[in-house]
Amino acid sequence: MANWTAAELAQAVLTRLGICGAGQTAAAEDAAIVTKSWESVYPQLRKLNLAPWGSSAIEEEAQTPLEKYMAGQVQSTFGIPEPEYSQRKHEAAEGFSELKAQYSQSRHAYPIRQHDF
Questions:
Q1: Mean pLDDT of the 25-30 span
Q2: What's the average model confidence in pLDDT over 67-81?
Q3: What is residue 107's predicted lDDT score, i.e. its pLDDT?
Q4: Which of 38, 48, 51, 59 matches a 20 to 30 Å C-alpha distance to 105?
């Protein structure tokens, strides 16, 4: 696998939600909804140090967690019914936790040194 673009993320999210089938291309309007949501979510994840990649260069290890998270973010727009709605919310929380586990630790951590005062 390679890095995903925002369009590939949108396709994966719409497939996860069942809006389009595997191997089918999502409708442009549906993909635009996910992409627009991603454009607002990405800066928030960056501030939390959970998205150290470019918005259109989503790293492989973040793809599945982010797909889950974004599906939970946009599902109400598509009218996902219960019990799928609750399941997607659970998966969204799981995806966010996975992102935190992968990226919340600083990649540039320095050891703390003891100082004599």
A1: 95
A2: 95
A3: 53
A4: 38
Amino acid at 81: P
> Do residues 49 and 99 touch, judged by C-beta distance below 8 A?
no
Q: Find where tokens 């973040």 sit.
A: 62
What is the Cα 55 distance to its own chain's centre?
11
For residue 56, the model assigns a pLDDT of 84
- One DSSP character per residue, the chain reads --PBPHHHHHHHHHHHTTSS-TTPPPPHHHHHHHHHHHHHHHHHHHHTT---S-TT-B-HHHHHHHHHHHHHHHGGGGTPPTTHHHHHHHHHHHHHHHHHHHHSS-TT---------
Can you tell me the distance from the alpha carbon of 14 to that of 10, in angstroms, rounded to the nearest whole number? 6
Could you give the CA distance from residue 64 to residue 1 in angstroms, rounded to a whole number? 12
Q: What is the dihedral of CA 47, 51, 98, 44, to 10 degrees?
A: 40
Tokens 């003891």 identify what position? 114
